[in-house]
Structures
1.
Amino acid sequence: MPVHSVIDGRGLDEAPAPRRDLEPAIATLKRLFGDRASTAEAVRDQHGHGEGWYPTQPPDLVIYPHSNEEVSDAVKICALHGVPIVAFGTGTSLEGHVAAVEGGVCFDLSQMNAVLDVNQEDLDCRVQAGVTRKQLNAYLRDTGLMFPIDPGADASIGGMTATRASGTNAVRYGTMRECVLGLTVVTADGRIVKTGGRARKSAAGYDLTRLFVGSEGTLGLITEIQLRLFGIPEAITSAVCQYPDLESAVNTVIMTIQTGVPVARIEILDEVQMGAAIAYSKLDGYDEKPTLFFEFHGTHAHAAEQAETVKAISDEFGGSAFHWASNLEERNALWQARHDSYYAAKALAPGKKAIATDVCVPISRLAESILETKADIQENGLLAPIVGHVGDGNYHLVLFYDEDNADELAACKALVDRMNSRAIAMGGTCTGEHGIGLGKKRFLEAEHGEAVAYMRMVKRAFDPDNILNPGKIFTD
Amino acid sequence: MPVHSVIDGRGLDEAPAPRRDLEPAIATLKRLFGDRASTAEAVRDQHGHGEGWYPTQPPDLVIYPHSNEEVSDAVKICALHGVPIVAFGTGTSLEGHVAAVEGGVCFDLSQMNAVLDVNQEDLDCRVQAGVTRKQLNAYLRDTGLMFPIDPGADASIGGMTATRASGTNAVRYGTMRECVLGLTVVTADGRIVKTGGRARKSAAGYDLTRLFVGSEGTLGLITEIQLRLFGIPEAITSAVCQYPDLESAVNTVIMTIQTGVPVARIEILDEVQMGAAIAYSKLDGYDEKPTLFFEFHGTHAHAAEQAETVKAISDEFGGSAFHWASNLEERNALWQARHDSYYAAKALAPGKKAIATDVCVPISRLAESILETKADIQENGLLAPIVGHVGDGNYHLVLFYDEDNADELAACKALVDRMNSRAIAMGGTCTGEHGIGLGKKRFLEAEHGEAVAYMRMVKRAFDPDNILNPGKIFTD
């Protein structure tokens, strides 16, 4: 059985869906965009996949717009010819979001990378979609402000908005759902639409902003984002603590959240992942044990008080002495190791391909959910380190398979399926932050049931010809 | 000119919109609901208005469902006969949301008032729509948890969800937008749809939950709400501080927010409102001066530290000594006085009717916005106390008019219009928390422009026959 036949969505062995007038659309766009339009195979291939395991499905053309108006013009051309549109930021998504499953035109927005406006007094800013989170934080360096959402990869703000990204700081600062104040979106007929505003709250009409956040390019192309910012805290302290078993680590997390400590980051690495991190990131002085990474933000006194409270909780569950990252350099090294865990995990199985997946459950079910998943991994003889934003009940698995071994891939996918089903049965979600994309379409139905009919109504109303990232989110 | 002809929406002097088969719908519903269906004039009148200034527009029938299934059955009957549906909670909305401008059936959900589930470990709960916020907090008393959102009135959670309510604690805990995790909604064809879930975050599909939050009964009837809860803080301290002028008070607020102090409440009363509060609520020892009410939540140390920081900021702007509400009784009296400000204001102008309105602006424009509004009030010789959730940039005005004086009403409405226009021009919103209802429909267009077309698309898709609270949010 060829590997491709087991992917969700339109397999490569099937004929592509009928599409209308691709050639004239490409010709017109090439004239319009000149050397900012490419049909080169290497360019198309590079834009046909994210960082997930999904096979490359290249678009027919890649364009690099520079303005809302250029995006609008290009969308109008695609709409006229019925050609699919896929938005592209940094290509770091994990669920096949950018795969051009029906071909069409990839809108690479990476050159729309201006920070348009920073309002220091209002703690907000407006950026173009191609600005990355690290670029934004570098830009903000002298203002005393920060943009806290940190999914690990240096993703574009547009992509983070489109996938409702979150990451390590979300337990304190929220996700893109909470941090986006407003948007500029180019819709399926090329209209340039502004949603939301700069007020911290509003009761004026339907919340279109949150409807576009997490819509994965299927309702419109997000070109500008108004973001909440936060003051850089007076004190930031990081610590690492190791536990005799996974349950003790998870229980420390649960108790911390229930106690209401406003911890900024609380991350788990299981013993497999910790082993990988020690090897890959040269973390000296640690054991291959379940481990928590903490970060505390606040005034000096408040950060210290938070740390003290968490330390007391951790002691109760048999945690080791806190290992403090006392200076900026050590702190950065620590979080870099955390962020590199996907690469560290990959290094455990050289030559193999990796599937990264995530679920999120109510925190009371977190220990049970992780332990059942670990048992499932062991029963199936798979290698699959666990890492997670456990303060939100969100954790990740990386599974490995041999590219030539469809059975191994099928076993990995079956495990992911069971993990999703268990999370949904516990009142959780099949994805806390990666999105539906190609891979979790069936689980969207399992999780949301009848509500999916209403999501489809929105899709049909906003994009009646289904040209915006077709084949994603919804099963056919 | 009769007063009614100046209201927005369908005036009482006009013929009602054509509606189909009202009589058989009423007959069927009366059979189905028995003594939980009423056509009595007093009952219908009571359900034809909220607490706003809008003339009563009674429904033709009021029903009191007890379950999702009963709501669904009744909606199906209304849908079959094309009869308008208006949801009703406690009748405390301010923008005419419950006025039955096209007649029809009022669904009074106040008897769906069960707390269905409290998950202490996960800090969440599920309630029926008719549960009020005070009822919920009384229910939670022994759990150590609280539901913080507090719009003043003891509104139903369903109504608060439908209007995206917020209030005094929103600066710290967010609004209904942030605190609703999921919903059960009965849609226009009677389907019972569940949105969201219990996970703290999810990237699974379109955010229907936030689409229904703030939809004012026009997209579906919200029957159950999954809510975030918070631990009752170890320490809660309240203080009052008075200022030589409004600008100093507002600048204290702005600096507090910009400094990042996680203040739980920061409320302004201008000198007119403070005078009213002193008289109405017997607040002894205060002057008729611009005044801030503060509340600090946290551990004892952290609450004290926050208060100290704010005190230092306040001193810089010439604030008086902090008057501390040291015990629970004094604190409750203080916040009761704050919550009673609408009634206190009304007592300033006995026999007159009141218009309550609100706007919200970026905090950097707050002083300017309030001062321009005060100047406008003075220029027009009106009496209009100001009170506000200023930590969010949100403030309210209460204006008075004589019921028999259409010119006075018109002058009040013109002032509200200018206040809305100025707020929008400053990047703010025409309503921070009251909603659009009947009164702000034109300003929805002014604020959101082209985006309103997409709101209408959602409305048409979800409610093609426009039976759900017709005449609200959108201009005809």
2.
Amino acid sequence: MHLYPDNRDVFEQITVLAPGLLGASVGMAVAKHSPSRKIHVWARRAETRVQCELLEWCHAVHSAAEEAVKGADLVIICSPVETIAPLVERIAEHLKEGAIVTDVGSTKSLLCHNAKAAMPAHAFFVGSHPMAGSEKSGLEYADRDLFKQRPCFVTPLPETPETVTEQVVRFWMELGMQVCTISPETHDEIVAYISHLPHILASTLCAALQKKDSKWRHFAGAGLRDTTRIASGSPILWKSILEQNREEILRALDTFEDEIHHFRSALANREWFEVSNLLEHGKHYRDSLSPDATEQ
Amino acid sequence: MHLYPDNRDVFEQITVLAPGLLGASVGMAVAKHSPSRKIHVWARRAETRVQCELLEWCHAVHSAAEEAVKGADLVIICSPVETIAPLVERIAEHLKEGAIVTDVGSTKSLLCHNAKAAMPAHAFFVGSHPMAGSEKSGLEYADRDLFKQRPCFVTPLPETPETVTEQVVRFWMELGMQVCTISPETHDEIVAYISHLPHILASTLCAALQKKDSKWRHFAGAGLRDTTRIASGSPILWKSILEQNREEILRALDTFEDEIHHFRSALANREWFEVSNLLEHGKHYRDSLSPDATEQ
């Protein structure tokens, strides 16, 4: 836990806006690592608020976001990407002096600039992207260990004070994350390749298979299952992500289309050296990824 | 266990040629389900033979394939796809009257026709493709439960006697597999889509990422790991598979390229209804796959 010189916790009160899989996991993880912190939540739906009232980590449930952020040292917005900047706008006036607002959205550039513009002068916004999650969504899949050993981006703008960035970095590190600070623009380029492109390939492969004989699905092996698992993710959430990061994704798609086109030519022309080369490069890259918690 | 009317086991002696991950898993699974069967093996490398001598399920180890198949009721060839028909040619004369030869290769059409042509009149070949395995290869990763609940194709030719097909179907079912008989040509079409295409996408994605900043690999989340796991498979084995099933794979690649091109256009032109549609179709297909043993 990070303390002020007088031993007071920097983030005594934390407010989670829109606790779904990620927001509720943040709440559970904070309760585990820093049990003295008070956690407030706001949920748009009445049924989620009722669920939240039953959760041990949840100290106060609010029906208005404006109320929920009052007195909060840290506000974490966990709603879908396109709703984050509008939410910042809504809570801006109600933030206490020196409050820090962050989020868990999968895209950063557009969002961070809009959120920053919506912030009042007396509080700070710095974007976060904890790369944890699942193809599942919803409070009921929350997991207090979701963030352990996972990568997390924190994306300050040039004008973000260093101490603000540092406090948010420390917050995610306390939950066990491996944090990297980076500009929102570089973040969006990286995730276009390592997260959004793989999602598009999984979805596109499934959409192509959907058109073939429906009996074929009974023959799906572990390879197809793993390759396509993320295609089960929420189309609504993913449409927003693709919309927010459209330009970077188009560039990543071009790179991929070049590669697959090159591969297809090699196969069509029986250029077996080229085919082997691509397989070797692919294996080399995959083997170089450090093992995942679930692979160990 | 399948018995003759006089209660004698149809497959008293089984010979596994080239016990790697799959062959050794067959041996272990047979020893578990039908402990009275004798299992002989032949391995090309001396070091594998030494390893095999230490394995409980392995009753005899041979340094010549011709010797190993003598007296066998069932021969299972587990070597890479391009070596299967040549091995059939080599053992043909040494097979006993009525012996059945099968394999575990990932492609079937070319292989089954070549293997059939190499067989003597007094024995039978029918192809198999147990869809089990791993991105790992080698005896040391063998697992007696590898075949449990997994799909398996058995691919008779029109001239294959029904009783031969039936005995091979029964053999895989006894190891817990869900067996489907199908022509070698249809098999190759199906696996081009559900197995070879996903492998190519995983390899191609990795090959494309290999060209980007090498630090990006530290940010790989579970999505990228799952999507690309199979790219760690042996490039040598996969080059052979692609070679043997080249035409069907080219057709599958065309279907995929159409789909991704369609997606790219929709994203480029901000046709969000189309983008959502593709994500929905992809999710619908993925959700319709019955849960895998490892997903339960």
